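Q: How would the structure tokens look for this protein?
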Amino acid sequence: MTSDYNDNDYGWIKELLDYPHTLAERLNFFEDTSQIAVPEDPIDRVIFQDKAKRAIRKIAQNRGHILMVGRPGTGKSMLANMFKEVLEKSLGDYLRPQEAIIGYPAKDKNHVRIAYEDPEIIEPLLDTFIKGIDSARDSVDEFSLAAQIQSARNAKRGLLWAAVFGSAAGIFFPAAFLIAGLTGMGAIFMYMQENNHKAQEKIQRESHSDRRNAVKPLEDMVPEILYDPRKDKDLMARISEPDARNMKGGFRHDPYQSGNLETPCHKRAYLGAHAKSAIIYIDELKTLIKVGYMAELLEIMQNKQYFLEGGRNTGSGAADRSENPLRAENIFVACCNHDTLQHLQEEGEGAFLSRIEDKGEIVQMESAVPETAENIRQVAQYVKQEIINLAGEFKDSWGEVIAKEGYESVKQRSEYIFGKTLPDDFKLQEREICRSAVLEIIKELRCRASDGKLSGILRPINGIIKSAEFEAIFENAPKVEARHVRKALKEHLSLEGGLSKEFSEHKKYLKKYISAMTDSIGYVVGLAVIHSKSSGQMVGQPLPIHCQINVGTADKVVAPGKIGDIAKAAAQNVRASIKKVLNNIGAPYVGYEMYVDYIQAHGGVEGDSASVAMDIALISDFVKQPVNQRYGVTGSLTGDIILAVGGVTEKIRSIMSSALGMEGACIPWLNKRDIEPLLINSESEYIQNDDIPGIRIYRAEEKKEPFDIYFCKTKYNAYKILMGLSKEEVESRMAQRSKNDLEFMRNAEGSSVKVDSKS
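A: Here is the predicted structure in token form.
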């Protein structure tokens, strides 16, 4: 019998067992992270992104633009900060605006004139203007009606005395009472006139005729400093929602628009990032597209200047505009993901991308990098950097408490926070991480990628490192060890929320499914993955599948439920593969209806990694041979060959728990390197079933709880592991089944029924 494997194949599998030793040798330059130095160059603190770092250095030299494209967590924001820091230290004094931007009245009330001047020159001039206006205000005579008030008061007093004398004379001469009454009425009138003058004087002093309003036309002519470079030291502006308001600036609303109270437009003007910042960092270009600012941005990038304009509504400031342009010689640092990049390629035939490439570069961020010695060293450096960051966080959060009350107070306060008693010698201080723990982190990075690569999505790993640090701190361990990282990984995965809950439910169903299985014909445990949108992590998920083949006049495959286009195509591919086998062995062929059922896959299925599992389940039902339900299987079937699929490491990890009762898995030969991270900190050995090579991993100490992984090149290798049948046995039984079905059809329908017979 011809084997699918040769001596080199067996040698390659045996070499996989050397991976943990090889990895340990690459990390033998330290025992714990206290021996690792962090680079002084800020750009070198970003790991894995060598291409992006080279581009940033080149662009910084040429003062060009950069667009970083990649998934969240690959270091885009960190590189943007490093870009700013490098330019700050190298060219900051020349990049940062040196001149103040001044606005002053133009040809009419709706226009403002823009000027650039040294702030050391313009500030004394403005002080001189203001002092002159204050002096003019003080020299304005205060409004007064004192003479009129005094005249009315004197007349009032004279009339009052006349009324008094008239009343006295009226005792002797009654006609004098008439004179007293008339003079009294006159006194009252003059009293009212006096009060009227006083009120008029007060109103005039407090309204339009006071000294402040007397000099308002002069105040409205005083220029306004719209930007002072001495007060704004930040070289880079971060824009989360780029639109005309925060990119270009505009004019504020004027609540007083009449009665000589209106504010001139140059005093209501404000500037945006284009005028004030040498570097503009747009964190997510998708927002720029949503707000419709792209056309204006392209124009500014082309002309390097723009006119300050009011809003596009009918409110105050809508008609305001600058008479001359503002400078806009900005360096753009932008980030986006791949779906936004596709939109940018279509927007204006890629005009924005063309602007970037004209004076800069578009950089693709690495989401996965090869596991080289240099990248392994960078992981250790990255872990050390996170320890330093954690130390800074502790200082920011607890530094004042430690300084005033000591670590004992921190211990007591922490016990209130966590609701448990902490060790007597508890000390809230970062711990160094030992080499075995770094190995666990590298293992996790390998598990989250494929094809022997390390995941470049590092943001979720930050939380794992911090969780491991806290595990060691609460245990009061001197260092973070591998067990702390493993515990942090277990607990950190629960933060995925609904994803983890769904994953746990599928495991529970799988255990019930396996323990209740009595007839395993047509049943197989496939392996799938769930993708986390928040972290980019893949979480393995067992996927039980049931298939059956029924003889009939139709020749079709039915896969009910929420199944995607790729999965449907995979089912059709499996049908074609079975027909090909029947043709190759010269078996009589009749119509077959093939049914595929993904058990408990309520969320739907997409992808072709279950095609091998479907084929095994269909063949199992066709030849009536039970499938070993304690083995999972994954792979993409093309003819007889099993091709590589993604997420193999996570798929295997999803069924390695001893509580599930699973004993092993069959994976594509081309995915053989994906089991390397599973060998870290575990005992393992080479195994072989017939001619099929594999590796046995022990899930417990002292070589207990073995888990076997076999590397299959063809579907017949998987048949051997899962059903115990060789290629010849399968083909013989398929031929016999086909003959039996042909005979059944003839007996049922009679000889008049036309069927295709090949013998």
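The longest strand covers residues 538-551.

The CA atoms of residues 464 and 490 lie 9 Å apart.

Upvote if useful.
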